Amino acid sequence: MHTKTHSLTEGPLGKQILTFSLPLILSNVLQVLFNMADVAVVGRFCGPRELGAVGSTSIMVALFTGILMGMGSAVNVLVAQFVGAKSRKDVEETVHTSAILCLLTGIVILIIGLLFARPLLELLNTKDELIDGATLYLHIYFWGMPAMAIYNFGNGVLSAVGDTKRPLYFLTTAGVINVILNLFFVLVLGMSVDGVAFATIISQYISAILILISLFRSSGIHALHLSALRLTSSKAKRILLLGIPAGMQNAIFQMANLFIQAGVNSFDATMVEGNSAAANSDALVYDVMAAFYTACSSFMGQNFGAGKKDRVIKSFLISLAYSFGIGAIMGCSLVVFGRNFLSIFTTEPEVIEAGMHRLTVMGLSYGISAFMDCPIAACRGLGKSVIPTMIVIMGSCVFRIIWVYTIFAYFHTILSLYLLYVFSWSITAIAELIYFVHIYKQQMAGIRPAIPITEG
Question: 455: helix, coil or strand?
Answer without folding.
Answer: coil
